[in-house]
Amino acid sequence: MIETKNDFVNVSSHLERMAEIQPYKRAVVYPVSRDKNGGIAYAHLTFQQLAAESERIAGGLRKAGITQGTRTVLMVKPGPDFFALVFALFKTGAVPVVVDPGMGIGRMLSCLKSTRPEAFIGIPLAHVLRTLFPGFFKTVKVWITVGRRFFWGGETLDSIRNGAVESYHKIMTRRDDTAAILFTTGSTGPAKGAVYTHGNFDAQVRHIKEHFRIGSDEIDLPTFPLFALFDPAIGMTAVIPDMDPTKPALVNPEKIIEAVINQGVTNMFASPALLNRVGRYGRSMGIKLPSLKRVVSAGAPVSLSNIKCFSSMLTDEAEIHTPYGATEAVPVISIGSREILSETGKLSEQGHGICVGAPLNGIDVRIIRISDDPVLKWSDDIILPDGEAGEITVMGDLVTRQYFENPEADALSKITDSTGFRHRMGDLGRKDEKGRIWFLGRKSHRVTTKKGTLFTIPCEAIFNNHPEVFRSALVGIGKKPDQIPVICIEPEGKASIDKKKLEKELLAIAGKHELTKDIKIILFHKSFPVDIRHNSKIFREKLTAWAEKQIKTRNG
């Protein structure tokens, strides 16, 4: 049978299928308590139980007025209720709206308001927030508290469960029907709501399972809540880590390692910041994690030293994968640590950029001329030859088509193609002779000087080679095309560092490389501002403003 784009597709069907073929396998495992000696106790739901729970909740949601198309704010911590609610919303055809709470209350509220939500499901703290700022939720008609309800009105999740007595059959949504609105972090501009369809989610499930060759016996430790949602659909057991998901850079390494060992975790998602923290601790303690088959790290570029460090805990058969993508399209490209350690990592340290690998099967990646203007219609004339630096564009079934009611963002990021549309990633890169993509940095972060254009990732790699540099960030002072390049340094030792000596050594290194020879200003920063989602992406806009003040002070 030939599948058409209007065939019925509902992402919750994946959970139903897993409940049929592996009903007694654990779907969600979560920590519930610790004894006086620090030992941890876990509880779990099987796939059969999770499917039944989501069906029961879906029936209750429909009675409460949450039906197909209802935009529903979801502010619930990772755990069994979170999984059951998300799949229940998918079953009803409702549209969960998900925003990172770590982006700050003001920005988060503005994002939520922009979607004109009609329902609100959240923990008590989330309801306290909405009572303090009622103006942002004037369109909401249905309120549901996950946990104890205090002085505010509405239903509770328990009453929703208890009110559902009849069986519930999922809504027959189509491939192009909206499934969710997921907001970007806004690390390089205003946060935007990416519109995910059931077809997008369905494609993601297939691509992830096929590319990473995930088997039926897999157990995952998802340290980023949204990635956890793929586990029940793929058939992996999701072990909820004992951590604050909004602060991966400050995670307790012992608790992550404890979960891997206790549960026999085979797959783990970790942001580069978490990978670094856990890897450094594990290597210093001589810890081994033999159950891990693969580690997936994304959200920001992963350094070679970070990969080497964490790899010290893995078996020779295990591999660290660093897929590339964005909220609007993920994953689209991927590479494994074997290729990085044996070939591409050495080139990255020399300023070639970071190789993110080859496109996943079915994903079309093209490099086009750099432009800050909209490209309304696709033309092959804007494609650059292999080896030349340009903007990365992607096309495929997992790529989101639009932002929620944001035509300006659509114009800047989407290109109409005769066979569909392409998404402009806003990232710069080049394609090598093997078809691999080399990431060079964000388009908005390039530094344009009188002598030429500098890209962040290649330039920073030169400075990052110094053992006393934890990380660096290239910023441009002034207006394009007459910017002054400045390199900001976050030292490794921080407190005990001899800054004058280090500055002299770094300038000497810079002078030996064609990429960096024109960088004459070095500034030291105690701790770079980073994104709230992965604690890894550097907020270069903030760093640029800081650098401008430092230079003004230095010049009197």
Provide a brief overview of the structure.
The chain is an alpha/beta fold. Helix 12 links the parallel strand 13 (294-296) and strand 14 (319-321). The chain starts with 12 loop residues before the first helix and ends with a helix.
Structural description of this entry:
It is a single chain. By secondary structure, the protein is of the alpha/beta class. Among the domains are: 13-195, Rossmann fold (3-Layer(aba) Sandwich); 352-443, Roll (Luciferase, domain 3); 446-554, ANL, C-terminal domain (GMP Synthetase, Chain A, domain 3, 2-Layer Sandwich). 32% of the residues lie in helices and 25% in strands. The strands form 5 sheets. Strands 15, 16, 17, 18, 19, 20, 21 and 22 form an 8-stranded antiparallel sheet that branches. Strands 2-1-11-10-12-13-14 form a 7-stranded mixed sheet. Helix 12 links the parallel strand 13 and strand 14 (319-321). The termini are far apart. The relative contact order is 0.08.
Mean pLDDT: 94
| Highest-level CATH class of the domain at 13-195 | Alpha Beta
> What kind of sheet is the major sheet?
8 strands, antiparallel
Classify the fold: give the CATH topology of the domain at 13-195.
Rossmann fold
Query: Quick one: overall form?
Result: globular
What is the second-level CATH architecture of the domain at 13-195?
Answer: 3-Layer(aba) Sandwich
Rg from alpha-carbon coordinates: 24 Å
Let me know the CATH homologous superfamily of the domain at 13-195: ANL, N-terminal domain
Determine the fraction of residues in helical runs and give it as a percent range.
25-40%
Number of helices: 17
Q: For the terminal residues, how far apart are their CA atoms? A: 74 Å
Structural class: alpha/beta
Instruction: Give unreliable regions as ranges.
Output: none
Strand content: 15-25%
The total beta strand count reads 27
